[in-house]
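Quick one, T. Sequence first:
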Amino acid sequence: MMVPGNRLISWTALAGAGGAALWAVQPGLLPVAAVLCGLLALAAAADAWRGRRAVATVAVTVPGDARATVDRPAALELTVQAGVDLVRIAALWPGAATPEQEILSVHPPADGSAGRVQWPYTMHRRGVSSLTLLRVEVDSPWGLWAFRRDITVACRMRGYPNMIPEQKGLAAIFLNRGLVGVHAQRQVGKGREVEKLREYLPGDSYEDIHWKTTAKRARPITKVFQVERVQEVYLVMDVSRLSARPAPALNDLETADADRTQLERFITAAMVLGAVAQRQGDLFGVMAFDERVRAFVRAGHGRQHYSACRDAVYALEPGAGNPDFGEAFTFLRLRLRRRAMLFFLTSLDDPVLAEGFINNVGIIARRHLVMVNMLPAPGVGPVFQGTDVETADDVYLRLAGHLVWNDLRELELRLRQRGVSMAMAANERLCPQLVSQYIGARQRQLL
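C-alpha cells:
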C-alpha cells in the first residue's frame, strides 16, 4: 500500500499554488509552471519506485509463543531486518492484550543485519490469544511517500494467572528463607511406610506386630514405621457450569473485572498449592473435569513439571454441563496407585450434584485422603451474619441463604462419616485455607 507523505502533500500544494499565482500574474509563464509540476511528478514517481523496493526488504518475525502474567508488564520480542533507517510497526493485537504504544518505531542496524526490539504490553485475561498480523511502514528515500505492507505471523499469546494477590496473604511461605535450614518441626503420627522389623519391646502396640514373621520365628516381631517425606498431592478442580459464577477482586493488586469467575480462583489456587508443595518437597499434580476429564498431569516435582501443570489448566474455560463425579472418581481410582491427598474445588450447593458426589466418593475415599473446598454463592451464610437488613426482600434473601448454608452443614456431616472433610471459604480465603489444610495434614501424617 502506498500513501502520500506530508512532504509530498506540502510540495504539491506549494507547486499548485505557485503555478496558479504565476498564471494569474503572467499568463505567459504557464509553461514554466507546467514544467515545474512535471518535474515534481517525475521526482514523486522515482521516489515511489525506490520506496517500493525499500519496503520489500523489511522482514519482521515474532516468537511462536509469548508468555505473560495477567495484569503484569510483559514484552513481545520482535526481530527486525530492513535496509532503511526507520520502520514503523503496528499489530492486530487480540482483545486480551493492550500494548504500551500502538505504533512501534524501530531503527534497524545500519549494516542490514537483524536486530531485536521489545514491544511492551499487558495481558488482561487468562487464556490463549493469537497475534496474526503485523503492518510495517517505511518512508521513501526522499520522504514523499509512505509504503505499508502486511506481514502474516503466528504467535500464541499466553496469559497466565496472577499469583501475586494470593501470595500477599502467604508471604511467609514464599520467602526464600522461610523453609531453608535445619529447624524442628513437630510431626504427629508414626507414618505408614514400614522401615524395618525388630523384636517386640514392652510398650509396643499389638497392632504393630507382624504376625507372619512372628509365626515363623516363634517370638513377637514388631513393625517399625517411618515418616513419609515425599507425598503425592493433587488438586482436582470442577470446571463445569457452576464454576462460571462471578468472583470479585481480592484487593488493590487485582484489577476489577466483571468477567472474573470462580474458575479463575480455582486455577490460581492450584498454582499456589503447587508452589507450596514444591517447597515442601512433595509431588504435585492437577486434574480438571466436568462431564469428562479435561486435563490430568500426574504428580511430579521440579520447575519443568510445575510449568507442565500450569500449561495444562491455565487456558480452561467453564463448561456448560454438570460434573460427572462418577467418571472423575473412577479415573482417579485407576490412575493413582499410591495413597495421595486429593483437594477438590467444586460447588455442592446444588442438591442433585451434592447427592451425586456423596454416592460416588466412596470409590476413592477408602484409599485416598479427600478434602473438599468450595466457594459458596453470594448471600449463603447464617441468617444473623453480615450487615443489617433494610427491606423485606433482604429478609427473604437472608433466609434463603441460611437454608442453603444449613444444607451445606448437613452435607459436611454426611461427608465426614465417609472420611471426607469439607470446608467453605470466602473468596479471599480460598488459597490460605488450602495451604493450611495441606500443611496440617502433612504435619499430622494423615496419609
